[in-house]
Amino acid sequence: MDGELVPWGEARVHVLSHALHYGTAVLEGTRAYETARGPAVFRLDDHLRRLMASARIIGLAMPYPVEELREATLRTVAANGRPSCYIRHLAHRGYGEMGIAARGCPTSVSIATWEWGALLGSGVRLMTSSWRRNDQTVVPTAAKATGPYLNSVLAKQEALDAGYDEAVLLNAAGYVSECTGANLFVVRDGVLATPPDSAGALAGLTQDTVERLAADLGLPAVRRELMRSDLYAADEVFLCGTAAGIVHVSSVDRRELGEGPGPVTARLSDAYDAVVHGRDDRYQHWLTPVAA
């Protein structure tokens, strides 16, 4: 927290922190994986650059450059001694004064790690949420900010209450955007398609990883607008994200898509697993080793 290692139970913020009241914070979810060379963080610099970009978008001054954040991340992972873990970066407006303007509120930066399995199990039962994805003309959807995540929380609660595993959100125009914490791909006739950023979807780093792996596997992939009916007519649907990994969708709004992953999803999932665990030397540049 703010440059110092702090015991878990002492990692606290003031009850009048601006971010707690107004959602003025940006975050990143990153993972360290166990490899033959020891723990390594996957695409760490890409995550940190996106954190900095998100902060600029919402006007949050960052007190540390990427180089210091990288060092602090590796230091925190090493101090906790886990061979693999989830990493949460958070930069938020702290306590200084109350009120929306918050001119006197300093930026506080924290990095936490913990053991966290895959966010979703295999065979996700997906539903279309009645909530619409945040409109980017009202909320900057390009920023991974905490305030807009209320949109995801409401959709996730709705899905769980209805007996599903996850929700997909449509944007105001009725096009597919993304799920509550993951990007979405459909596969039809061997071609992968995923919604563009303009649909309100976050530009996901796992989404980008999937597209690059697909290209190396000779699988065509495009970003285009998707209708709800495209999900129903797909040969395969899968979700991807740092917390979720790559997981296949078994049904959408009770339209069955198959209990097991389809051939394209399976190939990409295997390739992704090899990359993050350092078994594919072509992608070693995506792994930042954690010092002992």
Automatic annotation (TrEMBL):
<dbReference type="InterPro" id="IPR036038">
    <property type="entry name" value="Aminotransferase-like"/>
</dbReference>
<dbReference type="GO" id="GO:0009098">
    <property type="term" value="P:L-leucine biosynthetic process"/>
</dbReference>
<comment type="function">
    <text>Acts on leucine, isoleucine and valine.</text>
</comment>
<dbReference type="GO" id="GO:0052655">
    <property type="term" value="F:L-valine-2-oxoglutarate transaminase activity"/>
</dbReference>
<dbReference type="GO" id="GO:0052656">
    <property type="term" value="F:L-isoleucine-2-oxoglutarate transaminase activity"/>
</dbReference>
<dbReference type="InterPro" id="IPR050571">
    <property type="entry name" value="Class-IV_PLP-Dep_Aminotrnsfr"/>
</dbReference>
<dbReference type="GO" id="GO:0009097">
    <property type="term" value="P:isoleucine biosynthetic process"/>
</dbReference>
<dbReference type="Pfam" id="PF01063">
    <property type="entry name" value="Aminotran_4"/>
</dbReference>
<comment type="pathway">
    <text>Amino-acid biosynthesis; L-leucine biosynthesis; L-leucine from 3-methyl-2-oxobutanoate: step 4/4.</text>
</comment>
<keyword id="KW-0100">Branched-chain amino acid biosynthesis</keyword>
<dbReference type="GO" id="GO:0009099">
    <property type="term" value="P:L-valine biosynthetic process"/>
</dbReference>
<comment type="similarity">
    <text>Belongs to the class-IV pyridoxal-phosphate-dependent aminotransferase family.</text>
</comment>
<keyword id="KW-0663">Pyridoxal phosphate</keyword>
<keyword id="KW-0808">Transferase</keyword>
<dbReference type="GO" id="GO:0052654">
    <property type="term" value="F:L-leucine-2-oxoglutarate transaminase activity"/>
</dbReference>
<dbReference type="InterPro" id="IPR005785">
    <property type="entry name" value="B_amino_transI"/>
</dbReference>
<keyword id="KW-0032">Aminotransferase</keyword>
<dbReference type="InterPro" id="IPR001544">
    <property type="entry name" value="Aminotrans_IV"/>
</dbReference>
<keyword id="KW-0028">Amino-acid biosynthesis</keyword>
<protein>
    <recommendedName>
        <fullName>Branched-chain-amino-acid aminotransferase</fullName>
        <ecNumber>2.6.1.42</ecNumber>
    </recommendedName>
</protein>
<dbReference type="InterPro" id="IPR043131">
    <property type="entry name" value="BCAT-like_N"/>
</dbReference>
<comment type="pathway">
    <text>Amino-acid biosynthesis; L-valine biosynthesis; L-valine from pyruvate: step 4/4.</text>
</comment>
<dbReference type="InterPro" id="IPR043132">
    <property type="entry name" value="BCAT-like_C"/>
</dbReference>
